[in-house]
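Design a sequence for this backbone.
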C-alpha cells in the first residue's frame, strides 16, 4: 500500500504545476498592480488565475480518471476506488494551491498561516484515524474531506472566487509570464 500512496502523492504534488505558472505570475503581478492603484486589473488577474486553475485541474483530474479507467482490469476494486477518490481530491488541492498563491499575492500571511495550519492538523488527525480504521481508502476520504472543508471555508471567508470577470487575454498573459517560473521550479524539483 505504501508504494501506491507514493504514486498518489507524486500525482498530488505535481498538481501545483497544472496551473501552467498562472499562480506564480499572479503572485508576481498582483502586488505591483495594487502598488500602482490598478485594483481592477489586479482583480482580473486573480479571476484569470482562478479560472485557469479550475479548468486545468479539472482537465488533469479527468485525464487521471481516464488512465485509471483504462487500467481498471489491472487494479483491485479497492485500489480502483482509491484512485478515483484521488481524482476528486486533485482539483480541490489545486484550488487550495490557488488560494495559497492568492493570499501570498495579497500579503495576507496571517490568514494563510491559519489556513495551512488548519489543513495540516485536520488532514493529519482525520487521515491517521481513518487510515488506521479503514486503510488507504479511508485515508483518502479523510484527505478529500479535509481539503473540501478547508477550501470551502477559504473560498467563503478569505478569497471568494470571482469568475465572472474571467477573460482569456489576461489568462494567456499569466501563462506566458508564469510558465518559465513554473518550468524552472519543476526542473529543480526533478533534480533534487
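Sequence:
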Amino acid at each position: 500500500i505504501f508504494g501506491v500512496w507514493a504514486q498518489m502523492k507524486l500525482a498530488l504534488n505535481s498538481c501545483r504545476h497544472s496551473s501552467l505558472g498562472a499562480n506564480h505570475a499572479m503572485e508576481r503581478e498582483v502586488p505591483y498592480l495594487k502598488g500602482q492603484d490598478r485594483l481592477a486589473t489586479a482583480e482580473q488577474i486573480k479571476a484569470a488565475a482562478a479560472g485557469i486553475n479550475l479548468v486545468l485541474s479539472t482537465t488533469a483530474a479527468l485525464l487521471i480518471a481516464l488512465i485509471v479507467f483504462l487500467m481498471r482490469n489491472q487494479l483491485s476494486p479497492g485500489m480502483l476506488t482509491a484512485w478515483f477518490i484521488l481524482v476528486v481530491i486533485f482539483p480541490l488541492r489545486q484550488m487550495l494551491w490557488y488560494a495559497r498563491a492568492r493570499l501570498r499575492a495579497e500579503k495576507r500571511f496571517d490568514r494563510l498561516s491559519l489556513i495551512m495550519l488548519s489543513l495540516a492538523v485536520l488532514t493529519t488527525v482525520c487521515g491517521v484515524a481513518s487510515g488506521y480504521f479503514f486503510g488507504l481508502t479511508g485515508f483518502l476520504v479523510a484527505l478529500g474531506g479535509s481539503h473540501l472543508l478547508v477550501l470551502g471555508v477559504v473560498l467563503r471567508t478569505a478569497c471568494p472566487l470571482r469568475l465572472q470577470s474571467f477573460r482569456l487575454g489576461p489568462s494567456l498573459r499569466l501563462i506566458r509570464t508564469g510558465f518559465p517560473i513554473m518550468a524552472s521550479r519543476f526542473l529543480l524539483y526533478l533534480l533534487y
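The CA atoms of residues 61 and 87 lie 5 Å apart.
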